[in-house]
Amino acid sequence: MTTDVLHDCVLGQSHGQQVLFVPKDRYIATLRKLIDDSYTMCVDLTAVDFLTHPGRTLPEAIAPERFEIVVNLLSMRDRTRMRLRTQVSEANASIDSAFDLYPGTEAMEREVFDMFGITFNGHPDLTRILMPEDWDGHPLRKDYSQGRIPVQFKGSAS
Amino acid sequence: MSDLLSTVVSAGTFEGNQELRSRSELTAKEVMREVGAVLRMSEADVALLAEVEADPGEDQTMIINMGPQHPSTHGVLRLMLELKGETVLRCKPIIGYLHTGMEKTGESLTFMQGGTNVTRMDYASPLNNELVFSMATEKLLGIDGDIPERAVWMRMLLSEMNRMSSHLLFMASNGMDIGAVSMMLYGWREREEVLRFFQKVTGLRMNHNFIRPGGVAADLPAGWRDDVLEILEMLGPRLDEYDTLMTGQPIWRERLQGVGVITRDEAIALGATGPILRSTGLAWDLRRDMPYLNYKDVDFDVIVGSYGDAFDRYAIRLAEIRESMRIVRQILDKMPGGDFRIQNKKVTPPPRARIDESMEALIHHFKIFTEGFKVPEGEVYVAIESPRGEIGCYIASDGSATPYRMHVRAPSFVNVQALPHMMRGGLVADAVAVISSVDPVLGEVDR
Questions:
Q1: Any CB–CB contact under 8 A between A76 and chain B?
Q2: N or C: which terminal CB in chain B sees fewer CB atoms within 10 Å?
């Protein structure tokens, strides 16, 4: 992976797309700098659980962790995209919320919390968004087995 | 309040903290954030916003539930509204009633089967979902530059026809929401003509699984050109009828103009895309600004509004149908011959006729549909312009035949966040017009 440096973070390429590997402690500070670089819209924020695929390709300076927060930014001025990948460990599955910089991440961060159990510090309303409030577990984690809940129909004979 | 809560609980829709909480349970700062005050405004502006309601006190407001079962919520969208009289003070969309774990399902389907999954997300524009998924897969495979020209033009044709059918559906549902019930019938009628064309091409009216990694599933049927021309000829005068029926009509304008206003900065901050963003006057269309397929070779206009209200969003969609027709006309002229899918044995199954005469072809066919094809390790994000805004597909692959993680950036999911902001200070009767003008598809919101 050919790498470069932007805002003291490793800048890589993935299929011709810019990927910035941001350490967790400089996540918000880097976002702030990127806003000044005209990346004013956060189009997407999601996460990946790399539990069963730890040997993925990363730049040398980046130590892999279980979770990765993936943020896709858009610059309408330059018509470019920038993807941020931040490693989040299983032991401390939390990261600062980007809500104050990008209010549009409100629902996306709630979705990541709901699906992966990663908490966002400073999020105004960190509740489940897609799953019911009393649901156990976080479905998109790789150790959450599919089809664990038996299908039941109300009023069925069994 | 407690009475209301108990009815909600007994109805089995209690969602705990996901719901809109009463003012007494919240701090001033939380209320401020909930009303959408943190939109990169100065503190003075935020204070102005806060003055509108000036803390009316618990006994003067009422929290009511709209949905999840309500004819005007476009599916199972549930809104909790705090009202003072007829004025909406706060609003919170509660989603997830249609959540079926499609992103989790996507992890166990091969790249070949993935199209059947994503096409069910935004069921009003299924072909755009398939297109973005296929483009992401092709980029991972490194074959995105090798797709045959005919396949690319066919994808554009289907994508634009789909934009027409989706916007026609919007015309129908928007008309119904505002009270122009006859419009609902006309919109559905015209959409059906487009769906009939899809049925002829793909075999199905919806959920086609027609655009697949490597190209499309089949060639265009005989007589497709006449079918398209017929639709284009029929649609032009019908759109003029819509203009007569709605655009210039005083009641229609009264219902929509100045309703659900959003500014450009707010739309960008909230991540809203598509007609919502363009209604604020910002000409941002991925087809023109970050071209994919062959959109750089066709001539079309990006339609923008100037007030950011519900009427602008209606007018933009109506004009976008006309622009799509213009694009389709150019596609008819430029459609080349040749292959409709890539001749790469890795991703393309052998033709049906070969299976009868060759054992190897039979095995190959069997393996490609049962085991799928392996996609190199890597991650990629591809975005295109769907009728609702930017639809993106993020795929992380671990080198196997199924995506390690498949995430769809659904435009409706993000656009729904703009609802509380658009509704603030408006009338409860306008709430329906605002939801309608966002045009959310709940299959995509909840995935």
A1: yes
A2: N
